[in-house]
Queue: 2 jobs
Job 1
Amino acid sequence: MRLRAARVRVRVPATSANLGPGFDALGIALGLHDELDVRALGTDDVRVEVQGEGAGTVPCDETHLVVRALRLALDHVGAPQTGLHLVCRNRVPHGRGLGSSAAAVVAGILAARGLVSEPDALDDDVALALATQLEGHPDNAAPALLGGLTVAWTDEPAAGSAAAVRAARLAVHPDLAPVAIIPPGQLSTHAARGVLPAQVPHADAAWQAGRAALLVEALGRRPDLLLAATGDRLHQGYRRQVMPASLALVDALRARGVAATVSGAGPTVLALARRRPEGAGRGTDADGAITEVFGGVMAGWRVLPLDVDVEGGSVTTMLD
Ligand SMILES: Nc1ncnc2c1ncn2[C@@H]1O[C@H](COP(=O)(O)OP(=O)(O)OP(=O)(O)O)[C@@H](O)[C@H]1O
Ligand SMILES: N[C@@H](CCO)C(=O)O
């Protein structure tokens, strides 16, 4: 395998994982994107410029997450390593539960796909497996790669072979109107996973399986069922201790009929709202409740209505 291009442009969406009961499995791509220009250099240099989210905080050397993912993908297909110049225009907030790390990992893998002579060697199946290797779980990487609503799972490995990570796209009702409510502070996924128990009661697992099945129906065809369908007993309650304000917001919104969940590992809150019907003005059916709950007192939080991204990550080869 050789490099066929020197310059590529990559675009990857934010994602929200779990959506309540779909812990480590369901995820949805959102209309908020990181964009990167990646240039292969004739030298061994690595230069990373970051604009927007993460500027001044993420490392700008070989340890940058996009660089690590890109190198993993080049190694995987036997392509030569190269010097790199990255310009990252980041809009996905970091450490907020909106899939910034998955976006970075998918961006690196897609950049490698755009650079190599046989891009099919990094098709979506391979890209998802590589992303999961770096991320640990595929629920953000799958929608970041494929767009829309996805369910990701891992097939039991046959003796002597690696487990296969797989994903399928699911239907999304056109009225679905996600609203991200983003706090000013970060919480790492690592910290949020650290407070989860090793075991849960059988009754909770059974309850959750029913809600996850209902959620697929609610998101695809019956948005009127979203409040019931976004219940959770496996993660949000355990995580209350590390994001009390987010869980208080989830509780307050749910008490007002809004299908609110913690987005990914938090601390962002995602309201799965519905677009107002034609003629009823712009906005969503959750806007009144969000305004009422906020009351202007949650300083530094941002309310961000977002479209569902249906395209997923993309890479374009740039001609010099
Ligand atoms: N665009 C990026 N470039 C470089 N590093 C990044 C980028 N995005 C995220 N990271 C790294 O990943 C960390 C955040 O990852 P983490 O998994 O904790 O949160 P998240 O991905 O934003 O949330 P979640 O996985 O819950 O959706 C950042 O602090 C940074 O180290
Ligand atoms: N399913 C993951 C998403 C965060 O990457 C979690 O909740 O820990």
Job 2
Amino acid sequence: MTETQGSIRFSKANIVYPNGVVGMKDLDLEIKPGEFVVVVGSSGAGKSTLLRAVNGLNKLTSGRVEVNGRQVPSQDGRELRELRKQIGMIFQDFRLVKRLSVMSNVLMGRLGHVPGWRTLLNLWPAADREIAMRALERVGIPDKAWVKASDLSGGQQQRVGIARALAQEPAIILADEPVASLDPVTTHQVMQDLVRINRELGITTLVNLHFLDLAREYGQRIIGLRFGELVYDGSADTVTDRDFEEIYGREVREDDVLDEGQASA
Ligand SMILES: Nc1ncnc2c1ncn2[C@@H]1O[C@H](COP(=O)(O)OP(=O)(O)OP(=O)(O)O)[C@@H](O)[C@H]1O
């Protein structure tokens, strides 16, 4: 790995949507390789906008964003596809092909690495199958490889989503509200998986989270957004309820925390 592999840097970055809504405002932000960053902010604060700007799904209106030390291309094309190969995405709704096996879903993470004709004929090279199986081992469900994705629990489906991202062998993982569809117990398991994988593999990880207690518990660094603007950037160990109130522009409420009794922690 080069020194810049896994790095993200925004400089004076702005995104104004065609309808005039400001999604990102004068963002200066540097994320170092291997960091685990939790992004918080109320609905519409610009969390998804930020994540999607990293892999070029959202284009900047002005300013600059660099990933792995290189500017994210402003045009779709080969260069952007190459960059996206190195960025794994994890979604709230898992985005699995439910009628296919777990293994087939995880192999999708290899799509950018294997010639199209082989994938169409389902002739995946042994090395890629091996990578997919290792990814399933990493999330603790190698025994589910040949089960249909639709037959898994929500937590297991999200683990397949994580394994698919890992199969890309990415430098960066972007997780957009990865636990929003899960029950509290499974939520903690999936967050623990993400943290463990970050520590084991050193993959830079950005996680958008709604619940403040999860941000505190699992974040290393917390970034707070409000109206597209960076209003907080600090350690999860020292973030206070007052900081969260400033990020949200209001008092912390019961529905901001997953586990009861944590509202005034
Ligand atoms: N494609 C779009 N066109 C126009 N406005 C958009 C578009 N995508 C997002 N926005 C607006 O940009 C702002 C930031 O949205 P974004 O989805 O990034 O927020 P968020 O913090 O992820 O919110 P949530 O927690 O609800 O997902 C919002 O006001 C949203 O309505």
